[in-house]
Amino acid sequence: MSPSDHPFHLWIATDAETTTVAQCKLRMSGRTNSRRVGRITILSPGEPISPKAAEKRIGFQLLLIAAGASYLCCWGSQIHWGLILAGAVILTAFALSASANAKKPSTVVTPSLHLHPDRHRILVAHQDRRSFNDLLILTERIDKTLPALAGLVDSKNAAALVTQSLWEGAGFLVRRQEIRSVRESLGRHEGHSIGAPSRSRLDLRSQQQRADALWDEAKKDLKRLKFHLTATAEAGEAFIRDRELDDTLQRTEEALDRLSVDGSHAGAYAGEQLADETTAVLTAYRELNDLYGGKS
User: Fold this and answer.
1) Smallest Cα–Cα separation from 92: which of 118, 116, 62?
2) Is residue 114 helix, strand or coil?
3) Is residue 28 a contact partner of residue 108, using CB atoms and an 8 Å limit?
4) Are residues 41 and 137 in contact, defined by beta-carbon separation less than 8 angstroms?
5) What is the radius of gyration, based on Cα positions, of the chain?
6) What is the distance in angstroms between the CA of the first residue and the CA of the last residue of the chain?
7) Pure H helices in the chain
8) Buried b / exposed e across 209-243, counting CB within 10 Å, b at 16+?
9) How confident is the model at residue 263 (pLDDT cuts 50, 70, 90)?
10) Mean pLDDT in the chain?
11) pLDDT tens digits, one per residue of 85-113
């Protein structure tokens, strides 16, 4: 079953403390930078508004509220004045709250976390967030090559496959994050085991070995994913470079009165390289699909 049979969209939001990857919509608490990469929406904190700009904005908003309330009071009956003034107070409170939020750094908001915790993967450790960013950079490199590969691979399938691979990568990193926490917890007790062997010491060592084995497994999963994403990105980029070279040589050939022997060999070699890169692209996407396709 192809990845596009079960399409889904990923949301990635980062702030100073966390990186959240979700199949549900995310947002930021304040000013936001947003961009799209294929089937992925990436959110990050926008530049907080300066105190001076915030004061000017709230002053203008309060002036509008006061002017509107005065106008309505002039044309309304006394019965309606209370409602008008209450509305003005509510708008004022809203404007003051919005101004205060605009001055604060944005944080990630997860509206659906309590409903769908399995569709959210939250990274808090610096090394895990950095590793995920490396995967995201590879995803962006792949996405840039897809328009040029439209005649070679199904671009919708490829975009869905890469999105699913990134989701799997977030899962590997969450697992690694949890294993690290267990290893650190066990490590805090290692120095306390002094004296003759006991059942507790044996259990501690056994759990440390299990945690170490899981840690190695998580590292291998992440390394394999990064290898295949890198291979896919490099294959697409090499294909584009060689196709551009092939096109250049064809245009040059048409402009020349006659070809030299060296020129003929160069054209043939470029054609062979393009064929090799075509095979590399197809192989890279096939391997990526075998490992991560059809998962969600």
Assistant:
1) 62
2) coil
3) yes
4) no
5) 29
6) 12
7) 51-75, 78-103, 126-145, 155-190, 199-255, 261-292
8) eebeebbeebeebbeebbebbbbbbbbbbbbbebb
9) very low
10) 78
11) 555 455 555 545 555 555 577 899 999 99
For 234-247, how does the pLDDT look when each residue is reduced to its tens digit (9 = 90+)?
999 988 888 776 66
- In this prediction, residue 275 carries a pLDDT of 63
**Which tokens sit at 230?**
């890198």
Domain ranges of the chain: 51-103, 125-187+199-292
* pLDDT score of 213: 95
Question: CB-based contacts of 41: which residues, under 8 Å, 6+ apart?
Answer: 9, 10, 11, 12, 26, 34, 35
- pLDDT tens digits for 126-177? 999 999 999 999 999 999 999 988 888 888 889 999 999 999 999 999 999 9
For tokens 């959110």, the residue is 43
- Non-local (6+) Cβ contacts of 271 within 8 A are 246
Q: Which two tokens stand for residue 107?
A: 């944080």
CB-based contacts of 34-39 (< 8 A; 24+ apart in sequence): 37/136, 37/139, 37/140, 37/143, 38/139, 38/143, 38/146, 38/159, 38/162, 38/163, 39/7, 39/8, 39/9, 39/10, 39/159, 39/160, 39/163
Region for 103 from its dihedrals, namely left if φ exceeds 0, alpha if ψ lies in -120 to 50, beta otherwise = alpha
Q: Name all contacts of 79-83 with Cβ < 8 Å and 24+ positions apart.
A: none
Cα 203 to Cα 282: distance, rounded to the nearest angstrom? 49
